[in-house]
Design a protein that fits this description.
mainly alpha, two-stranded antiparallel ribbon
Length: 135
């Protein structure tokens, strides 16, 4: 159950009112914990993705439609622009979505440094693996 940005886990033996207290977690009894600040959710920037979509799809098709109407061109111009811009838009939008998801993943679960990385000489740095012991 979610109340006030804190997830409360209810055990079957406890009443719902007791388990719904903000800042307490019920596990076979109530364990009082300090109130923690609610974590703000990480969101995907839809404005950036919408702009990429508009610039890669809607703008070329709208400009070609206006060119067909204003200059009395053949409708084939609109078809050729559509054939060129739609696959290009799919590529650019998918790259933007993947970049945005990568940004969100780096915020939520950043990569841990590899402690077993090889040093410049190619050997594993022994100081990282086994720190010096004092006698």
């Amino acid at each position: 159950m979610r109340k006030g940005g804190v997830i409360c886990i209810m055990a079957p033996a406890l009443s719902a009112r007791r388990a719904n207290k903000v800042g307490s977690v019920a596990r076979l009894g109530s364990v009082n914990q300090r109130k923690s600040k609610p974590v703000s959710p990480v969101r995907i920037n839809m404005q950036r993705l919408s702009i990429v979509f508009l610039l890669s799809t809607i703008v070329p098709l709208a400009l070609s439609f206006l060119a067909v109407k204003l200059f009395d061109l053949s409708i084939a111009v609109l078809l050729w622009v559509g054939l060129a811009s739609i696959p290009l838009a799919a590529f650019t939008v998918s790259r933007a979505v993947l970049a945005e998801l990568d940004r969100v993943i780096q915020i939520v679960a950043p990569e841990e440094p590899d402690i077993f990385a090889a040093s410049e000489s190619g050997a594993i740095d022994a100081a990282v693996i086994a720190p010096k012991r004092s006698a």
